[in-house]
Amino acid sequence: MDKQLDYDSVTNRLSQQGMVVDAAEVHGTLCGMLCGGMSLTERQWISALSDTCNQGETFPQSVAQILDSLFQQTCQQFVEAEFALQLMLPDDQAPINDRGVALINWVQGFMLGFGLHQQDLMQCSEDVKEALEDFAEIARMEEPMSEDEDSERALYEVVEYVKISALLCFNELGQSLLEDQNEKPSVH
User: Fold this and answer.
1) What angle do CA 161, 164, 170 make, to 5 degrees?
2) For 19-53, what is each residue's pLDDT tens digit?
3) How far is CA 113 from CA 52, 91, 95, 150, 152, in A?
4) pLDDT tens-place string over residues 117-168
5) Is residue 187 part of a domain?
6) Helix-helix angle 96-117:149-169, to 10 degrees
7) Gap between the Cα atoms of 119 and 142, Å rounded
8) Is residue 118 part of a domain?
9) What CATH number has the domain bearing residue 169?
10) Would 87 be classed as within a structural domain?
């Protein structure tokens, strides 16, 4: 992929088409679906996003194209070396409250996407269950953050925790998808 998509370019494209979701929520939903066990090669993600983010309406071509690029970028980050996943959030120059709201949107999207593909939490490890409980807490955060070093550090730590927890979920529940992809039946 030539150029990595960023929060602003994806959010701008979505808002130009009158959509009320931001890049963080869409990316979180995609990540949740992948971490919940959705196939990396099936196209069911686009209809799931359409249902959850666009009231079931087909995406305009320009949005579908950027979403396809975002999906490919996200899949690539999950299958690359460890910790390649980058959450689709505003950059560090954005006000801390904007970044905090985007993180909440990302986590809410993740929970939605994960729930669409993984309803049986009994098969999940205690670590994954704990991460999902923590995500539920993060999704309910409402506190405005002050523009100080302690708040910056706290937000950074939560973002890193969310990223590592998403990778944990993918490694446990989504990793089998990679094996399925590599074990395509051969025709004799």
Assistant:
1) 140
2) 889 999 999 999 999 999 888 777 888 988 988 88
3) 9, 24, 27, 31, 28
4) 887 888 889 999 999 999 999 999 877 778 889 999 999 999 999 999 999 9
5) no
6) 20
7) 27
8) yes
9) 1.20.120.740
10) yes
Sign, CA dihedral 175-181-182-185, equals positive
**64 residue type, one letter:** A
Distance CA(97)–CA(91), nearest Å, equals 12
Residue 184 lies in a domain: no
Tally of domains in the chain:
1
* Domain limits for position 99: 7-178
Nearest Cα neighbor of 86 from 12, 176, 23 is: 23
Residues 101, 184: Cα–Cα separation, whole Å: 41
d(CA 30, CA 114): 9
Look up residue 106 and give its two tokens.
């990302």
Contact 45, 30 (CB under 8 A): yes
